[in-house]
Amino acid sequence: MRLKYLKKPSTAAILINQFIKEEDRKFSIDDLKNYLEVLKNYLPLREPNQQEKYNLYKLFIRTLSHEWEAAQIKGNTLAWIMKNTRNWITHNSNLFSELDEGIVAYLFMINMRTMFKLNDNELMSYEKRLFNLFDPEETENFIKKLVKITEIERFQYKILICI
What we know:
Blueprint: H1 29-41, H2 50-66, H3 77-91, H4 101-115, H5 125-131, H6 136-144, H7 151-161
Helix pairs in contact: 2-3, 2-4, 3-4
């Protein structure tokens, strides 16, 4: 993900900061540019063997969720998922010993939606690509039943059914 997806490239577009009380622990645009560069380094250029894949995915999720350490979550389900992912992967390393592409994509999409102010009315292009990892028929059938909800609620439900 590039910061071009943000509605406004300013600190106001950094949603994770609303969960952090200590001013000195809040993120700047430069902090998050560096964060995204680090995440990119965990994505292999060639498909690794299964054991390498588990190790890379685990490191990716650990790095992805690390920024939630200082967060104090109240009332935001997706942020709660990221905060608890951070706690679980830090304190119970066996829990994430056999990650697959689906859970990595799921956590990445949740993380980006809760860290940054993205367009609530549409899926980002990377999200559309990542949703291809999930069963399209089950996802579409579920989404069709949710006719009267907003696009962001539809996105959140779509993510939650992919677990």
